[in-house]
Amino acid sequence: MRDLQDQAIRQHCKALRMPTIGGQFARLAEAATREGQSHVGYLEALLAAEMEERESRAITRLLHEAKLPRMKTLDAFEFDRSSVSAAQLRTLAEGDYVTKAEPILLVGEAGTGKTHLATGLCVAACRQRRRVRFTTATALINELAEAAHANQLSRALARWERLDLICIDELGYVPLAETACELMFQVIADRAEKAAVIVTTNLPFSEWSQVIPNPRLCKALIDRLTDQAHIITTGTDSYRFRRTTAQRKAGKS
Fold first, then answer.
1. DSSP label at 200?
2. With 0-12 CB in 10 A as exposed, 13-18 as middle and 19+ as buried, what is 6?
3. In the chain, where are the structural domains located?
4. Which of 73, 129, 146, 236 is deepest in the core (most CB within 10 A)?
5. What is the pLDDT along the chain (253 residues), one digit of tens a residue?
6. 18: alpha, beta or left? (left if phi > 0; alpha if psi -120 to 50)
7. CA 224 to each of CA 19, 89, 99: distance values in angstroms, whole numbers, following the listed order
């Protein structure tokens, strides 16, 4: 009789798409009996297990869809080796900037932790059930150029606009053609005051004209990105280089 009941419950859970309850109801029932839980207490435990598993699966899916280069969190960043404020980044990670559609600009030389910090903020946003996408400036432009060539640019821009947060990494490493700048500007302009964006760059704003040849477009892009933005300078001293040097010294000792 018990086996038939268990089988029926599993079938019901499968039909209702509640796999966690289907997998845990028997174990939780035994625990409820041992602990003298009420029927309501047992039901609460079942539903909590299902909700927790659904939350975990949703976050896993969002992290996958974000296309992060590596899974790096702010907790893994060595703030003691950087000039960046740990308190400021942890406050930002709470997500208020996403709600308010405020840009974040990470400005500094190569190796100073810009991509790690940007990735950590993206991970935090995914864990808050926000739709995130990480890309490099070059990859974004290539994707939009291919969409334009296929007469699908409006559809591609709409996909980017629907995201809660986008991160554009490595802006400034490669000079951009004017058409490429115009494509990227469309993405950023569409999000102004409506959705958040994170940008990492190795160039101070005074040098953006080196990679964005059209002065009006360059000024307009900076204007959109810096309006109500959190501008974080990561410095010039390579965090990666110092870490590698320290590891080599430790290996020789």
1. E
2. middle
3. 2-65, 74-246
4. 73
5. 567 788 888 887 788 888 888 888 888 888 888 888 888 888 888 888 888 888 999 999 999 999 999 999 999 999 998 889 999 999 999 999 999 999 999 999 988 999 999 999 999 999 999 999 999 999 999 999 999 999 999 999 999 999 999 999 999 988 888 899 999 999 999 998 899 999 999 999 999 999 998 999 999 999 999 999 999 999 877 766 666 655 666 666 5
6. beta
7. 46, 22, 17
DSSP per-residue letters across 52-63 = HHHHHHHHHHHH
Query: How many degrees, rounded to 5, is the angle at CA 250 between CA 244 and CA 253?
Result: 145
pTM of the model: 0.86
Q: Give dist(CA 45, CA 21) in Å, integer.
A: 10
Buried b (16+ CB within 10 A) or exposed e, 181-211: bebbbbbbeebeeebbbbbbbbbebeebeeb
Strands 104-108 and 196-201: parallel
Which class for 5: exposed (0-12), middle (13-18), buried (19 or more C-beta within 10 A)?
A: exposed
Cβ neighbours of 130 (radius 10 Å): 18
198 pairs with which residues across the strands? 104, 167
Distances (CA, A) of 12 to 1, 20, 53, 133, 138: 17, 12, 18, 37, 49
Evaluate whether the domain defined by 74-246 bears CATH number 3.40.50.300.
Answer: yes
